[in-house]
Design goal:
Length: 68
């Protein structure tokens, strides 16, 4: 599932959710408040996710488990 490409259903039960440039306006203007978002779901439930902000050198991961 991509913001620009729409939904392309598969048969595995897994779904990639991708936003290659979240913050397009900022990206075009050269403002470092944009990033790439990638997520993976299985049978509709959140599994893994990543936010990458290469302009500022930050990358965050999530795996759906709560942390104390």
């Amino acid at each position: 599932l991509g913001e620009e490409t729409g939904d392309r259903p598969g048969t595995s039960g897994y779904r990639w959710v991708i936003d290659p440039i979240d913050g397009t306006r900022e990206f075009v203007r050269g403002i470092p408040l944009w990033g790439t978002l990638v997520g993976l779901t299985r049978h509709g439930a959140p599994g893994r996710g990543m936010v990458d902000q290469p302009h500022v050198g930050e990358r965050f991961f999530g795996d759906g488990r709560a942390r104390a």
